[in-house]
Specification:
272 residues; alpha/beta; disordered N terminus; globular; single chain
Length: 272
């Protein structure tokens, strides 16, 4: 296993700003699709061939960010290897009866099993935390602290997507956009209101903290009293993918990208 760590692909990509740096870091923890060979062989083949809980193309959707001076970090490993947006102690983020996928998921969002037989034991989970989870979180912490030291403040923007309908979470279709800030705890009121203001001007349906309040990344890093803010934006995949939610849709994506650009321009203004 150790040799596999040394020879497999890097854990994440860092895209540095092309323009003058602004105090925003975008995180895409669920757009990765890589499975280490030793783990892949334990999965049911039909599941690993199509890791459907992936936030497909989110890193591509936001690739304009560097032109605005924004730093971006995106994970390369699949969330089914280890979910970077879950509590490392596997404490559930919600208690409303929805399917809760774990730190090292054994089912998908609808409760379908991922593994052939053997699921990760405690030692395996500890290994994945040390080698694949901690480095991503440590890097986010480093980027935020570095940005705060340079610019006096920092905003972490955690970018996600989900199928329009996931019965394991809720029966009704999701709105287009869901802003999460853990009920106002992870970012300043000014940043939250500015974000909602821009999102509500779009042609999309918008919800705030329902059904997602922000995952572990948003909740653990957001500390507005220390000038480190965090927001999560969940979006239905139909905002930038086709109706099958399997292919990137250029026209839909471009409209969404324009909405996002307007949002970040507003946030940059607020953060000055």
């Amino acid at each position: 296993m150790n040799s596999e760590i040394n020879h497999c692909m890097k854990l994440f990509n860092i895209i540095k700003p092309k323009a003058v740096k602004v105090p925003i870091i975008i995180s895409s923890p669920h757009s990765g699709t890589y499975f280490p060979e030793s783990i892949a062989e334990k999965f049911r083949p039909e599941m690993i061939e199509k890791p459907d809980d992936t936030d497909w193309f989110i890193d591509k959707l936001y690739d304009f960010a560097s032109d605005l001076g924004i730093t971006m970090i995106s994970a390369n490993y699949s969330r089914w290897v280890i979910d970077l947006n879950r509590d490392p102690a596997s404490k559930p983020l919600y208690d409303d009866g929805r399917v809760i996928t774990g730190l090292c998921p054994t089912t998908n969002f609808n409760g379908d099993p991922l593994y052939r037989n053997e699921t990760p034991d405690e030692a395996e989970i500890d290994f994945r935390i040390k080698n694949w989870y901690r480095p991503y979180h440590d890097k986010i912490g480093e980027l935020l602290e570095e940005t705060k030291q340079q610019l006096g403040k920092a905003l972490l923007f955690d970018a996600h997507s989900i199928r329009k309908v996931v019965p394991g979470i809720q029966k009704d279709p999701f709105p287009d956009l869901i802003l999460g800030d853990n009920d106002g705890a992870t970012a300043s009121e000014a940043l939250i209101n500015a974000t909602l203001g821009v999102l509500n001007k779009s042609k999309k349906t918008v919800e705030h903290n329902h059904p997602f309040k922000g995952g572990y990344i948003t909740r653990s890093f957001g500390n507005p009293t220390e000038n480190i803010h965090a927001l999560q934006l969940e979006m239905a995949k139909t905002n930038y993918m086709d109706n099958s939610e399997t292919q990137y849709h250029n026209e839909r994506a471009e409209e969404t990208r324009e909405n996002l650009k307007q949002l970040f321009q507003e946030l940059i203004t607020i953060l000055k």
